[in-house]
From TrEMBL:
It is an enzyme of class 2 (transferase). The keyword Metal-binding applies. GO terms for molecular function: glucose-1-phosphate thymidylyltransferase activity; metal ion binding. Its cofactor is Mg(2+). This is glucose-1-phosphate thymidylyltransferase. InterPro entries: G1P_thy_trans_s, NTP_transferase_dom, Nucleotide-diphossugar_trans. PANTHER family: GLUCOSE-1-PHOSPHATE THYMIDYLYLTRANSFERASE, GLUCOSE-1-PHOSPHATE THYMIDYLYLTRANSFERASE 1.
Length: 244
């Protein structure tokens, strides 16, 4: 199975740091942010990886990652010419993935557990989409795609609700089959002027082909100044403990 790391966007929430570099190259303790999603894919057994990056500082991303040989993987690259949302970035992977299933991960996501069991279920299963959920705070849920449950099944996904129905949110790991590209072609921009990943997942939900797994150890998003600071603090402690 192939993987996609979404490392585009303008990094506006991390300004002025992102005036000088791609946000996914900012340090999280002792390594660039993008190394964490890269490790997540590697741990899941995925070695053929497309990196989608924006026009700004794209050369810095490729200079760091290169061919992938140094990291035991094989990288390909695509440029997202404008910030049009995650589905727009995922659409750039159509030729890369061909007719197979793939795993997409946001470049600012830090996970604390191996997703290989979930990836294996998706690879062997008949479903065409699988998402990962993590439990978070009510305030954080207001800024994410929130899952609505009924009798243990997801019945809806709500994007950035003012009054979250649950604290279970869809994190930036998406497993799709090749029909996702047809779905993306049907999407219309939201009020933000971008395509929304929640609309992709709701399309699968309407078809009855969306599956999910719950993370036990959670995750972090390092997309704002406060989140980046917290990520550095947490990864510092985890790394030090691991080295003891």
């Amino acid at each position: 199975m192939k993987g996609v790391i979404l490392a585009g966007g303008t990094g506006s929430r991390l300004m002025p740091l992102t005036k000088v570099t791609n946000k996914h190259l900012l340090p999280v303790y002792d390594r660039p942010m993008i190394f964490y999603p890269l490790q997540t894919l590697k741990d899941a057994g995925i070695k053929d990886i497309l990196v989608v990056t924006g026009m700004h500082h794209a050369s810095a991303v490729s200079a760091l990652l290169g061919s992938g040989k140094e990291y035991g993987v094989r990288f390909s690259y695509k440029l997202q010419k404008e910030a049009g949302g995650l589905p727009q970035a995922i659409a750039l992977a159509e030729d890369f993935v061909g007719g197979g299933k793939f795993v997409s991960i946001n470049g600012d996501n830090l996970l604390f557990e191996n997703i290989k069991p979930f990836v294996k279920k998706f690879a062997k299963g008949r479903e065409q989409a699988r998402i990962l959920l993590a439990k978070t705070t009510r305030e954080e849920a207001k800024k994410a795609g929130v899952a609505v449950f009924k009798r243990g099944k997801i019945v809806d996904l709500v994007e950035k609700p003012k009054d979250p129905p649950t604290n279970w949110v869809s994190i930036g790991v998406y497993m799709y089959g090749p029909d996702v590209f047809d779905i993306i072609r049907t999407l219309k921009p939201s009020k933000r002027g971008e395509l929304e990943i929640t609309d992709v997942n709701r399309a699968y939900l309407a078809r009855g082909t969306l599956k999910y797994d719950r993370l036990r150890k959670g995750w972090m998003d390092a997309g704002t100044i406060d989140e980046l600071w917290r990520a550095n603090r947490v990864m510092r402690e985890l790394t030090r403990k691991a080295r003891q």
